[in-house]
Structure prediction request, 334 residues.
Amino acid sequence: MSTAEPSQALGPPASSVAGPRHQGADGPPAGSSVGQAGNSAAADSGPPGERTGQRASPEPSGPEPSPGALLSVRGVSKHFGPVKAVDNVSLDFYPQEVIGLIGDNGAGKSTLLSVLTGYHRADEGSFFYKGKPVSITSPRESRNKLRIEMIYQQLQLARDLTVWENMFLGEELRIFGFVSDRRSMRRRAGEVLERLNSKIRPGDILGNLSGGEQQIVAIGRAILFDRDIILMDEPTAAISAAKVEDFLQLVRDLRALGKTVILVSHRLEDILAVADAVAVLVLGKLHCVVPNQDLTVSDLVHLMFGGQAPATASGGNLAQARWQLRHGGTGGGA
Prediction:
């Protein structure tokens, strides 16, 4: 008998390839987007990459979750005294997607992630996981109820322990409830590392690994316990420039496994390399969400400082653009 139940199947879950939002092969689902706004009829207004200077409403319409969304955030705010670090943010996150979350210093990115992980409690707003209302009051609740794992900029790992001990830290497998099942933990850790195409061995001491390899261990833990949503706060800050591309490929691999990745990074080129869409926060508010099609670093900088959003930020065009990415279209995140 075990006190923790990591995922037995490491391949993509059955729902990750063709979830409710992706059913059908003849066209994009109506009205589905991250940060959906506007009327889905906008999908017929022109090519997804066309820009008209239109300022689109960034928020989903209404307090209810969007169909097919894995996690819906509605009207969430977090105050620190008189300061609104996160101000009435509404977003939808869908299965098998990478979402870039960007903004200037103090825009509320890390605070929003801390609310999703349960480290801070939202002062206002609601959350829906797979369409059902949920609360986030603690990190344990976030991990167990919403299947969220956070990969911090400063990795929360024990350097003196082995890789497999770090992967199971706090959630060890036990026989009869009290005897540590070391053999099973080593084996399952090795299976996850192999799935991630890593040469790291379960018995390696964590402190002997490079920054990039330690990132793999932290991400392996998320896969081991079958987290659906993986949050990453400045993940490339602690690794060498030569290893950045390896990390970005790992993010793509996570998406292929059916995971949702929310990526915060000041390296905007990294966001453009892997994201399906980019959510922009300005002074705690959600400014817009745009599909990653024909975007440049200059475009993102423009949006970070409150510049006009492209026409593709409207709900219908965003749904169409993201559907095209799923079915052979072009885009930076494809």
Notes: Confidence is low (pLDDT under 50) at residues 1-59, 326-334. The two ends are 42 Å apart (CA to CA).
